[in-house]
Specification:
About 80% of the residues lie in helices and about 0% in strands. It has one domain. The longest helix is centred in the last third of the chain and has 32 residues. The N terminus is likely disordered. It has about 240 residues and is mostly helical. It is found in: Cell inner membrane.
Length: about 240
């Protein structure tokens, strides 16, 4: 049994172990993403455009941008991840690959985790890489940029993991993008608050260890629970389609 009907992609065989199967799903998603470069580039371009246009639309004053720069970058990163979530399971659902993943002997939550990690590598990690350049554009100092990159490095995987639940729940529905936003944005708010709060505390010279510990707890909780919830949501969506 295989999990992919697209030509040129190595299938996941039913007899392989858990970790090789996860690695195969991960590599398949990476290859597919590079074949559909528009889906790969759209979140990054959106991230750059939001941060670039915000000073033009609000205020170009240095002090204002220094105070609000972390919030601008965090909101732009959140929306960029949200923009890419609709494609997390959509292509697999359209070509029948998702049904084959569900039928694999390997646990579905592990394969979903592999797909979510691939989504973060392709979407969240490039946002973190771009952050220092855009942080300079909004006049953040070096320490604030370093803390901001650290919070995004911890927080963007949480966004992908939580987002995978919404993407699975809205799979196959009309206006899925709108429903996905309504479901997921309230769950993103704690991550956004602590992400921006960490940078604000660092700029004031306050300790940030507590903020980072809470964000780390968010990440551990999301890694523990989100794959199971996403797998259950996928089974529900497939049974109703």
């Amino acid at each position: 049994m295989t999990t992919d009907v697209r030509p040129g992609l190595k299938p996941v065989e039913s007899g392989v172990g858990l970790f090789p199967a996860m690695a195969a799903v991960f590599m398949r998603d990476v290859r597919v993403a590079f074949r559909q470069r528009q889906d790969l580039l759209n979140p990054l371009l959106f991230f750059i455009m939001v941060v670039t246009l915000f000073p033009l639309g609000v205020s170009p004053e240095v002090e204002f941008l220094r105070q609000s720069g972390a919030g601008i970058l965090w909101v732009a990163a959140l929306l960029s991840v949200l923009l890419s979530l609709d494609h997390l399971f959509r292509h697999d659902f359209d070509d029948g690959t998702l049904e084959q993943l569900v039928l694999q002997p390997q646990p579905l939550f592990a394969l979903v985790l592999a797909k979510t990690v691939a989504h973060w590598i392709l979407t969240g990690l490039p946002l973190v890489v771009l952050t220092p350049i855009l942080g300079i554009m909004v006049h953040l100092d070096g320490n604030s940029i370093a803390i901001l990159c650290l919070t995004l490095l911890i927080g963007t995987p949480v966004l992908s993991l939580i987002g995978s639940i919404g993407a699975a729940l809205t799979l196959g529905l009309r206006s899925a993008g709108v429903l996905l936003s309504l479901l997921i944005i309230p769950l993103y708010i704690p991550v956004l608050i602590f992400g921006t709060g960490t940078v604000a505390a660092a700029s004031e010279g306050s300790p940030v260890a507590g903020y980072l510990a809470l964000m780390g707890a968010f990440l551990v909780l999301a890694l523990t629970l989100a794959p199971f919830a996403s797998a259950a949501a996928l089974r529900i969506s497939l049974s109703n389609s």
